[in-house]
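Researcher: Go.
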Amino acid sequence: MNTPFFCIEGVIGVGKTTLCKAIAAHYQINCLHEIVEENPFLEKFYDDMNAWSFQTEMFFLCNRVKQLEDIKPMLRAQHPIIADYHISKNRLFARRTLDAKKWDQYERIFEILNESLPKPSAIIYLKASHEIVMERIKKRGRSFEKDMDPAYIKQLASDYDKAMIKLAKETPVVTIHTDNLDFVSSQSDLAYILTKIDSHLSSV
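Model: Structure:
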């Protein structure tokens, strides 16, 4: 049996990190968090995407590749892991923000780096309505997200839907609609999600 390695994905603000922590606590497993606020280019990126997109995307890619390389010994030692991102998100964001020339460069680098990374047992795909996502982004109050274009978020949600259809051909995708779920305050809501995960754990 392979060591369980789950990834949580979904558009900005949908609740990936919150659910990752809850699942990690329930199963007593390691939780891998994406590096976001530590990115020194992020605020500049949101002020001027064209000028800072390549630097921003490369920082994210290199840091996430390093994180995923670092968990290989843990997986070999049969320590399950849940991450609040899947490496494919880097390609999704970069495709939307980079011009044609930079995208071509990025894509070649991505393919090389992704070759030897551990592949997840399943992806937990969180979805929410556009209105709910925008409310959650506002509520968490990150300074670099305060002026985020709602149209950008809506486009990202569409991109995620398409990406998950493609990923599902190789990796099981567990889709969970979160508009009416509060997995922080409601144990029954969390139990509902855990039941879905358990069904996939049994087949890993």
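Model: The longest strand covers residues 122-127.
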